[in-house]
Structures
1.
Amino acid sequence: MIGATKIDTREELINALTEAAALEHGLLCQYLFAALSMKRHPSEDVTWSQVELIRSWERHILRVAREEMAHLGTVSNLLTAIGGAPQFRRPNFPQQARYFPEPLEDDVQHVEFTLEPFSISALERFIRFEMPEEKLRVTLEAVAPDPIKYVTVGDLYGQIREAFETLNDRELFIGPRMAQDTDDWAANLKLRNVVDQATAVKAINDIIEEGEAAPETLPTSHWATFVRIREALEKEIENNPGFSPARPVVCNPLTRRHRDSSSGATGMTIIDNPDTLEIAELFNAVYGTMMLMLMQFYAFAGEAPEQREGLRATIRQMMSGVVRPLGEILTQMPARADLPGKTAGPGFEFYTDLRVPSDRRNSWLIFHERLAHEAQACKRLAQKDGAPQRLAYLHENLEGLARNVQRYMNLGEL
Amino acid sequence: MLTLNVEGWFQCRLATDPDPSDEPRGVSGWTFAVAGEEDLDRIIRLQQPVSPRSPGPGSKVGVVVKAVSLDGQHVLDHPLVGGQLELLDKPKFEGRNGIVAEDATEFIHPFHLQLTGGGVSLRREDILDPQDPERNIHEVDPSVLRRRQPVEGEAVERAEIAEATGIMDYEGYRRKRKDKLEEKLQGTSDPVIQAALQKRIDDLDESLDPKKRDIRVGIQGVGLIYRFAIRGPAEVVDEGDALGGLVGTSPPWPIEFWMGGWDADALCGYMRGRLQVPFRPL
């Protein structure tokens, strides 16, 4: 392990897994952003054969993002198994100096967490995140016991695995066995059930392998996927120097400045186009609602099985039926008056520190209230002159989701 | 009672999970619009396919009346034999990523059928929620939707689907398609056609991975059964009195059919069923 942190207490292990959850969450947002920024049609100054090429890249990146969602679920299982609380919070983008230290001669520079359109530069960062440990010939200086230090995703998980292997098995797994998410969220997505040392180590090994396995071992590993896409993109640029696979999306398109974000090389763009701003705020609101529902789902708060199934279905439906389409819409909308031709994108912003109420009925009432409110906002935006056509459809989807939540509330006592 | 047996290939160019249901090109699901084709639109077309793909059943799209019987007796020279069945008003399989109906429970909306042939035209629309016809699908109570959803707990016999579609060997059918497309690819220098063919070949290839049980292979042997009574406004056009009797437009028209044998490469499926129409000969 390169980061060389020794995790030897429950608290440190919970901290490390909490970090892993924030990391997976941050990675998947960056992967989604890059995927949604991609061009889709020859009308966007690409040829049909380039459209096919871009589509295959987008497909692979979306697949990696979905696997990161499953990793986030597995990390929640690991946390719950040892008495920790699931973690769905992460700091707002961009993050200049928080993750992935890149050691230089005199100093340590971090790999920026930033929402960047699909490009060689974005792929370089993705490859760096998922790189196998042996590819990094660096050593960090010794670290104090508390902070977690790592240089790749695999490095962090390696330290977590070592802790699971060395900490006392009998004392470590104090979480209730029923509080494990073993649902099928989607075809081909594997969530790992964690009840003891063996299942914890297996879950971590699977995550590491899916992330950084060599192409000959697992061609679909995240690292191998990004390396392959970078090579194909470089080849296409070499053959067609003017080729640009992404829409003119700005980096980190945000609706406001956040105290917990720190701008780095890519900077941030505060959206000032009023129509775009409203849609970006709607995106963030829906994304926030989805996160609250995930928190509730992993809290195992005592809902009836049918209600848990309804909650799971609603979260999954929100991802495909609202969040992704809204994100795609934003990549085609103007970002700022002083940046003509540049478009916005999904900022994945948290306006506040989201928390679910301790009373589960209140949680569900809030979910319904938020979805109904978001549906109304979407309807209003869809009725504006020149509004993207898809908004009317998304309004119906949001209304349907709100209605479903209300129906699930009646399936059991809350 | 007049019973009309219908069957044939239909086309439906729709995106599949986990793509958003209104996804225009298809990215992360298992159906796609390929180079040069129009955007996906989810419309179920029983006649006149859009951008039909070749090879494949796209050129055979057309659901027609195969047989007509009156009170159980075949009427070989009935004017509607050979007639065309159409679904009007841009019908779609409505599921919306599970928001209004989960996988394999999607209903068809709107459901406004038209049968034409031999100078006769029968039209009838089923209203989703007769108590409140203005309601949009996302506003209709799920219990009201149920009658229009596929019948629960009943499956179409795989043998019947295979005999109807001719797809007797699921993998072999797709492998043969891939071979034909590869041949076609060798014979073209048009970059748009090349891109379209290559995408189809890659997709077929991916589905034939022996390590996976791919949905695109298995779904060729699956069908959804729909059974309900069409109860909305009806319209009968029979100016030449070819029917030789009166069609009941107030009593419901029971319909039962299956849609299946899905060819994910051609974006086509097969439909077979029967419509019953109250009829009194003069």
Note: Chain B touches chain A through 34 residues (CB under 8 Å).
2.
Amino acid sequence: MTHPSPLALDRLALGAPDPATQAHVDACDACRAHVEAVCAPPPPMSGRIRALRRPRARLVAVAVALAALLVLVRPAPYVGTKGGPTVEVWTRRGDEVARWDGAPLHPGDSLRLRVDPGPHRRVTVLAGADVLYAGAVDGPGALPTSWRLDDAPGPERLRVVLSGGDQPDWTLALDLPKEPR
Amino acid sequence: MVRAKCRRILGSGAEADEVAQDTFVRLWQEGPVQGAPHTVTAWIYRTATHLAIDRVRQRTRARRLAPEPPAPSPHPGDAALALDRLADRVPQTQLAAVLLHRVDGLSQRETAEVLGLTDRHVRRLIAAFDAADEP
């Protein structure tokens, strides 16, 4: 049996119609497994999550020192499924450090993410097309970077992507409301 | 999909994951994120292939300069070992065509589409590679 190429299977998985490839996939366990692996959705998540659609280039006004945020004052609930990857948002306003409770943020607030990568080994944080952070992770912990919100109107939108390991990539879109100072 | 593509070329070690992440980052920075599946997949295959070649070239050059060779990937595949051997002596486009055709299993037509070349050009590149690789 001649199998379609990985390119043809990937295209089918991403929604490009191809009757010949589809007919093969319907009859071939190996190729169906390939397509299903590409199509596998990320784990269901809760929290303030929405799709990220428009690029934002102005999130990062200043990358600030993170020593204060290293002192996470209390354990926090995760955003995600039990046993899976989790992402927590921590904020600092003045001297007050707290886990984000969903309230609107203010310009000048600092953000930091604490990530439990689950089975993944790399993390990428994006704001639109801007890569705010990319690096390896070997276990739960705060990312070694924080960001200060600027005074641009509108919510700040981040996407956290966990990759590497043996699981499909895991993506979380965070929509952080912001109100004027 | 991106990781699987990189692992076909580089094996299952961290190097493949790093190239996959680089590809993903570039996709978000400058790639056709909102494009049609044909466009996105061609871009991913092309970019990941070139990034993998670049990564291996950097590593082999560093190996030549370093007093001690770096540790090899813990899970090098046959393709990864072959790429180590070929990276410095085969031109970039020719090597990309060979990897897409021989390792990824793309047809010559698909390879041509991914690389933005003609079918005939791809045939010539692969024939030249085979001729040069013969003892």
Note: DSSP finds four helices and nine strands in chain A.
